[in-house]
Design a protein that fits this description.
Layout lengths: L2 H4 L2 E4 L3 H13 L6 E4 L2 H9 L15 E4 L8 H10 L7 E6 L4 H9 L4 E4 L4 H18 L3 H7 L7
Parallel strand pairs: 1-2, 1-3, 3-4, 4-5
Helix pairs in contact: 2-6, 3-4
């Protein structure tokens, strides 16, 4: 099995239809085996910090890549991104903003906070499939897995 098809992807998304479309696109690209979903920003932070049920890193491994929506309940996507970049063990993790916002201020803020990429959600599932294929090729196949390697180097007991 190709290593990129087994890497964990964390989708942080509260819209059920968007989750379903992403699951379909990831399945078509052969990337569903390690998909994890957080329905809001607070759950994403809990997942990434290994709190509560997410302490079991066998069931909930650190992701190689995060798709992060901006408009989320409880904790907004920008706050999640800032939190990720403030964590030494996670600061090289690949974070791709995937949102409906095309506002220049959102794009600038996401880039300033360290997003690796800013993508606008397409209006149809075929467009999402194209995005997933490109992300798979670039971030999971061609790019060196700095976040995964850095996470593996974190001493035991540190999350």
């Amino acid at each position: 099995m190709d290593i990129c098809t087994t890497q964990t992807i964390l989708l942080v998304e509260d819209e059920e239809n968007d989750v379903v479309f992403m699951e379909m696109a990831l399945e078509k690209a052969g990337l569903t085996s390690a998909l994890q979903i957080a329905e809001d920003g607070e759950e994403a932070i809990s997942y990434l910090s290994g709190e509560g049920e997410f302490a079991d890193r066998t069931r909930f491994p650190l992701p190689a890549l995060i798709f992060l929506d901006l408009k989320l309940p409880r904790v907004m996507g920008m706050e999640v991104l800032k939190w990720i970049r403030d964590q030494p063990a996670l600061d090289t993790m690949v974070v791709i903003i995937l949102t409906s916002s095309q506002q220049r201020s959102d794009i600038q803020k996401a880039c300033a906070l360290g997003a690796n990429s800013y993508l606008v959600k397409p209006s149809n599932p075929l467009g999402l499939g194209e995005i997933v294929d490109l992300v798979k090729r670039y971030w999971l196949q061609l790019n060196h897995p700095t976040a995964t390697l850095a996470a593996a180097a974190v001493p035991a007991g540190v999350r």
